[in-house]
Amino acid sequence: MDLYDVSTSIFQNEVALMEDWVPDQLPERESELKDIAFAFKPPLRGNGSMHNLFVYGKSGQGKTAGVEVALQQLGEKFEEIGKDLTIINVSLKDVNTEFQAVGEILTKIEPETNSRPKGVSLGDLNRRMFDRLDEIGGHIVIVLDEIDNLGTDDDLLYQIPRARSNGNLEEAYVAVVGISNNLRFRENLSAKVKDTLCDIEVSFDPYDANDLRSILKRREEIAFHEDVVDGEVIRLSAAWAANDEGSARQAIKYLHRAGEIASDQGEDDVVVDHLHDARDRIEKEQVISSITGLTSQDQATLLALASLESKGETPVRTKYAYAEYKKIAESVGMNVLTNRSIRDKLRNLDTYSLVIANEKSGGIEGGKYLECDLNIDLDDLLTAFNETNRFDGVIDTIQSGHHQSTL
DNA sequence: TCTCCACAGGAAATTGGGGGTT
DNA sequence: AACCCCCAATTTCCTGTGGAGA
After folding, report:
1. How far apart are CA A301 and CA A357, in angstroms?
2. Is the pTM value of this prediction over 0.85?
3. To bridge A180 with a disulfide, which of A2, A56, A115, A310 should be the other Cys (CB 3.0-4.6 Å)?
4. CA–C1' A94–B20 (A)
């Protein structure tokens, strides 16, 4: 048997469905692109400096691609008029502090710095960064993707735009483009940062089903052979994603996976059945990947809820969830954290959509309290945990109890 | 209506760890 | 080696909220 049979001709150019594929046009975002370009225009008109730009919207809305497309074209214009443009792309994905952010920028512009520096003072790092920027000179755009990771540690966002007037920069003109998934991030910025950074703001509203359909259609024409994909598959992928967060990334992922499944089964068409299958698998994978990404304390907290759920005792107050957590933690010999910490963990699991935590009030004990419930399928959760071995004993207990009750 | 209980969640201090510079 | 910098996770302390029951 040929394990790697890919003889059916489903895909023509599959890369158009990959995460890092950047389309050269974004017809659904024309007006946003214009607004972005507006911020970059001053140097083209004469010797002005660019505006700082703040771009926000949920994930999968084409923010990063939009900025990329706009900067690409800007680069061409600069070349025509013979000005220097340097673009520094920095992802703040794994960055939580100003210190780390400066370090991350340095890894991009200081050839000898390969990984984020440690053990030096923030002041030194800042100096190194500004010196280096001055050496580069000309117009520089620093794109800070996922800027919301900085939280309230936002001094950097003040420092860079003000660097010229503070005398930190002599030669270079630096503009900052901040890209944020978090719509409320802007509100949390300190007033001085808001003034300087949010010179121009562009918001990317969620795509609707029509937008998503035309986006998918364009990708489909590149990625698949003609007449391979059932029109209903496109419509459904778009509809599901539109109902969720309006994310093009998600819609494309559905379509891609459906195609892969069809190809894998040796079929020549992609139909709705494949799409349903694709969605099931993607959801399962998401559960697994979010669980394996948790710390073991978070996992133990999640298991406490799973255990209670298998006994039919959910939803529960944190008090009882904590008691269950404590049993589990003790049984596997890990540190037992305080109630306060577990409360935070439950909230945290809520933001990952693994748990639902609601504030309630009243009841026999009075006052207000958190009520928590598992937000994912118990079987999916147990499958995910079967791949770790830290909680083996606990999993077995939950599993046997669960099967008895479902029989 | 008043007091009290139970708990949420903010803020600050602590802990333990990784890594500089001199 | 002594001393300093940065950090994430957690604990400690504390203020605030809202129904229960007198």
Report:
1. 13
2. no
3. A56
4. 22
Distance of C1' in B4 from CA in A188, Å: 36
Tokens linked to A387: 């791949």
Q: Which nucleotide is nearest to A363 (CA to C1')?
A: C19
CA–CA distances in Å: residue A15 to residues A7, A221, A281, A349: 18, 12, 21, 34
Return the closest nucleotide (C1') to the Cα of A118.
B19
Spatial distance between the Cα atoms of A74 and A378, rounded to a whole number of angstroms = 51
Protein A189 CA to nucleic acid C16 C1', in Å? 25
Q: Is the CB of A335 under 7 A from strand C?
A: yes
- CB-based contacts of A104, cutoff 8 Å, min separation 6: A90, A91, A92, A95, A116
The Å distance, CA of A342 to C1' of C11, is 12
- Asked if the bond preceding A111 is cis, omega within 30° of 0, the reply is no
Distance between the alpha carbon (CA) of A180 and the C1' atom of B2, Å: 49
A366 touches strand B (CB under 7 A): yes
A151 touches strand B (CB under 7 A): no
Q: How far apart are CA A237 and CA A217, in angstroms?
A: 11
- The nucleotide lying nearest A320 (C-alpha to C1') is B7
Q: How far is the CA of A119 from the C1' of C1 (A)?
A: 17
Check whether residue A317 has its CB closer than 7 Å to nucleic acid strand B.
yes
Write down which residues 227-256 in A have CB closer than 7 A to strand B: none
3 state SS of A369: strand
pLDDT per residue, tens digit, chain A (407 aa), is 777 776 668 899 999 999 889 888 899 999 999 999 999 999 998 888 899 999 988 888 999 999 999 999 999 999 999 888 999 998 888 777 788 888 888 888 876 666 666 667 777 788 888 888 888 889 999 999 988 777 666 677 777 878 887 778 888 899 999 998 877 677 666 666 777 776 788 999 999 999 999 999 999 999 999 999 999 999 999 999 999 889 999 999 999 999 999 999 989 899 999 999 999 999 888 888 888 888 889 999 999 999 999 988 878 989 899 999 999 999 988 899 999 999 999 999 998 889 998 888 766 666 778 889 999 888 889 888 887 778 888 888 888 877 666 55
